[in-house]
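Example (one chain per record):
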Amino acid sequence: MMLTKGFVLASLAAVAVAKSAVIDLIPDNFDKIVLTGKPALVEFFAPWCGHCKTLAPVYEELAQAFEFASDKISIAKVDADAEKSLGKRFGIQGFPTIKFFDGKSKDPQDYSGGRDLESLTKFITEKTGIKTRKAKAPTSDIVFLTDANFDAAIGGDKDVLVAFTAPWCGRKLPPGRRTLCWSEY
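Predicted structure:
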């Protein structure tokens, strides 16, 4: 079977994007990562759980926010459906269950706060004193078109969304609004 260059590159790109800041725990690495002297916040989840699926992007964002301090705090997860021994060891009865390990004791504290980024961040900061750094603004994929670059930017076989704007137009989008208002001429 011959693979096309595009297929191989797309597959490699998908693998590169899939890297997570959340540490995956299994019985072989759990004690080494969680009980080593530094605090750890551990989510016990099941892949089929709707609440777990909702929490996943928030938990990933949390791990990214504390990634700079990975030598001081671990943000980790256990697939307790697959790793039943860990679920049983820590008395997991529902999903998702989040527990805080202080790094000194083998007995974790149950997390009972909100499942939003702000609540989780506040909890970690209260427990460890570690504050997140201000998030960097995401790089923009917006290209400002001019007469000189218009044909090159929208030509070829790529899909492009172009917004034609006028600097004199006083209409601005309110915060959080992502649709454009149209005017008829």
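Caption: The beta strands are 23-25, 40-45, 74-79, 97-101, 109-110.
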